[in-house]
Amino acid sequence: MTGDARQPRLRGLSAWTTRRWLRVGVAVSLAVLAVLGATGAWVLQRTESLSKNLVDVRSPALTTAIRLESAILNQETGIRGYGLTGTPEFITPYRQGLVEQQQDEKRLTDLLQGDDDGLADLRAVQDGVARWHERIARPIAAAPPGAAPPLAARRAGEGKAAFDAVRAALSRQQERLRAERAGARDDLMATLAMRNWVFSAIALLIVLLAMLVFEGLRRGITLPLDRLGADARTIAGGDFDHPITPTGPADLRRLSGEIDSMRRRLVRELAFTEEARLRLDAQAADLQRSNAELEQFAYVASHDLQEPLRKVSSFTQLLQRRYGGQLDARADQYIEFAVDGANRMQTLINDLLDFSRVGRLHNAHQKVDVDEVLRQTLSSLSVGIEESDATITHDPLPTLIADPTQMGMLWQNLIGNAVKFRRPGEAPRIHVTAAREGELWRFTVTDNGIGIAPEYADKVFVIFQRLHTKDVYSGSGIGLAMCKKIVEFHGGTIAVDTEYRDGARISFTLAPEPMENLGSGPDAPAEALRPAPEQER
User: Fold this and answer.
1) In terms of pTM, does the model score above 0.90?
2) Which residues, 6+ apart, have CB-to-CB distance to 523 below 8 Å?
3) How high is the pLDDT of residue 533?
């Protein structure tokens, strides 16, 4: 029965939350502190009361009783001297004693309020003094001075007996007052000792209560949180299979359970992510191998097409030279079409070869002065620049670690396009800028040409994507695609500034030094080798 009755109680306590434990602990602590405070206040009040009784009542009462005795003795001395000599000077102590007696009796009456025994002793003294005054002091003091009053001699024995009674009453009064003062002092000392014990006990209980509070916090909150933190650090260190053991109050156990549930969910998601990563790695490896094979195929195919294409071009040109003008006009036209097609095919194959070599053959990174590369590019394009009367300016350009051949191809395509796509009847004006942007350099090539419509801002970087027919502007449509591949190989990006309306502005970034894992990327060749249909602008 005892064990069965204890189990529900333990289950009830185990369901308590941290807040409830804290509330109960604070309530119990406040109750204990309130009891201790009340006990301490009572002890202090008791000590103050006894001290006040001793200092303000018992000691002053005894002192006043002694002064009262002195005043009465002065009266007796004066009366006795006057009765023996009749000298008036002896009356002065008597009269002064009367005044002091009245003052002391009044003060004693005030001090002994509520003390019936003390007041009774005072009345006994007053009665004895009154009889002595009536029978001895006043009659002798009333006698004329000059000679000893005869009454003093007749009543000498009676006066002595009356004053001895006064002395006895004064002695009883002082003995009682001394006893009461000693009792009050003993009570005060006992109370002070009890006060010291009580405050020592209060201090000990406060220390014990503080220890209990700290121990409760340590066991109920600190240790469970430390254990939970240790489990969390173990899991954060990579041991995701490490379970979290719920301990402490109900809410901390619930928190531990929720964190463990999150851990199990993370384990499942990590397993799924790892499986997906393995599949993705396999697909990436397949895609990279496929792209490598596709690049190799493009290079081999382009290279192998060179020889038969040269034969076709040579023989069509031979036909044109030998039989030109001997056949009819339609035959001459067909021969001209064949020659032009062979030349265009030769140009496309050469451009495709150059495109496939980016990042594969041209990969010799070294220090490159972009200013010098641009100067060489302008020298290579000098004929077209002079024919178009183009004006080309540039800001100071940086020095990069890059492939010099690719840098030359990049600037040749960009400057060549800016010169080629000029407005009819207007000389090209081209300006090149460079500015540091974080860890990269941003370059811009701005011209006053025909510009690029915003809807074609992405298409112009796709290989073989043309916005005009070959009759309007010559070219193979591979230049900007090659620029994109070169820029991305060097860790940058390239785009058309669609906000610029007074021509075209190409903006691209380049890394000052080679970045890890740079290259054409697994997706770049596949996308680059997808030809787009020729469009008219």
Assistant:
1) no
2) 287, 291
3) 36
